[in-house]
Design brief:
With 214 residues, the protein is α/β, with parallel strands linked by helices. The protein is built from seven helices and eight strands, in the order ββαβααββααβαββα. The chain has one domain. Helix 5 runs parallel beside helix 6.
């Protein structure tokens, strides 16, 4: 049985990183134990049956949060080092603009990443869920700030990516998260923020995106 991995920066508030951990799906101690041996088949089916699902190779879907954070990434040495692997791997490109997630030609990824304009809010939850419910690798580039056009605006205490993570990991796949600190000018003051690179992948997949960028 494959051990599911997750290198995860826990998110609380507007993209704040509060911890990094390494989790294993089978031996974390959080999975309940069946009461008797005759329940083992049902237990395995419920918790681990989907762990043999395989991803389609060479079909990575890139989701880009159209925000100042990603637009400013062009000046980041880390982003610049990361970008060639994304450009070479992306076979699908989606622009996350407010409540809209727009498809674009993946062969224009390099140019698209250089023409990003800030959109006031981003439906990151739907973007992550689309990756998690798919059968290809996916990457989400974002500042982690999930906003909705409502009175409350932000989702400061909402673990909005939790369901997408669980869906993906229960299939036996892997998630890696790179976190890059940066400064952004908000009004007249400089604010410390973080740029997130969420990699939905599977280490069993030859030439997977994590192996390309690590």
């Amino acid at each position: 049985m494959k051990i599911t991995h997750l290198i995860l920066g826990l998110l609380v508030g507007a993209g704040s990183l509060i911890g990094i951990g390494f989790l294993t799906g089978c031996n974390s101690g959080r999975t309940p134990t069946p009461e008797s041996a005759d329940k083992l088949a049902e237990f395995h089916e419920f918790y681990f049956e989907k762990q043999n699902e395989k991803l389609n190779p060479n079909a990575l879907a890139l989701y880009v949060d159209y925000s100042n954070c990603i637009a400013m990434g062009q000046h980041s040495r880390f982003f610049q080092a990361f970008e060639p692997s994304l450009t070479a791997s992306a076979k699908q490109y989606f622009a996350v603009k407010g409540k809209n997630i727009e498809p674009h030609a993946a062969d224009s990824t390099y140019a698209l990443l250089r023409t990003i304009d800030n959109v006031p809010f981003a439906d990151l939850k739907t973007a992550a869920e689309r990756i998690a419910n798919g059968n290809t690798e996916g990457v989400l580039l974002t500042d982690g700030e999930y906003y909705e056009p409502t009175v409350t605006k932000g989702n400061d205490n909402n673990p909005y990516l939790a369901e997408a993570f669980k869906t993906w990991l229960k299939k036996g796949h892997d998630i890696f998260i790179f976190v890059e600190p940066y400064e952004e000018l908000v009004g007249a003051r400089s604010v410390q923020k973080k740029r997130f690179y969420f990699l939905f992948t599977d280490q069993r997949l030859p030439d997977n995106i994590y192996n390309r960028v690590k």
